[in-house]
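Request: Show me your protein:
***
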Amino acid sequence: MANKSLGLTVLDVADDPYSSATSYRVLCKDGRVVYISIDDGLYENDDYSFTPKLLSLLPHFPPGEWNRGRITRTQERPNPHFIGTTCAKLSKITSTWHQRFVEFHELNIGEKLMPNVAEAFHLDLGEVIAKYARFEWEIPPYQTETEVYHWLNYHNIGPQFLGHLTEGGRVIGFLLQKIDGHYAQIQDLARCEDAVRKLHSLDILHGDLNRYNFLIGKDRVVLIDFETSFKSRDKASKTEELQGLSENFLDDRQEAG
């Protein structure tokens, strides 16, 4: 949500997993992205999620080159105010194997499929899927997934990896080919098992197989969501993962029935 009078746009909101605060990823009018943590109890509960109202309530943004700040209040200063603004070295994805880097502001973000996955349009790439860490604590799984896409490059198992997604040069995610298809159904099980066997032939375990991690395209099955994938040559683990997929499909059919 944007507040044009303040020149601020809230890009993302999430509960801080390490405190009772709410975290915000905010685009400033000068093009900087800053990360703000707002302590609980400073505003009405609804205002934390209704960002147009929240932006109008925030204290004046401090000047200077900072990217992380906290809004709190104390007994001495009972009104909400900034404290501890810093120019922090933010975590980033370090597995940068692809030659293309795209800045977040180059994307026209469309429908959000998940809080950190969105359809997007890029002038050169066209329609893509953007998958990115909104906040620092989301970096580790996308570090893993970026590495896995490197292992899968040219093997036609997942969607095509189109490049790294950056924010001020810091790698926070990646762009993927948009697949036209649908989630797997019970009748797709055999084809999905073949896709898993192909993955296993590279000594990679997916780690979270369920029918929602398969997209059934016009001419192929596409595996997605490799945040928990890892290398393994263990045959028993491969067999167990494949058997678990069949059980998952059957359980879903029973629940649907």
User: Anything to note?
Assistant: Confidence is low (pLDDT under 50) at residues 1-5. Helices lie at 45-49, 51-57, 139-152, 189-200, 235-256.
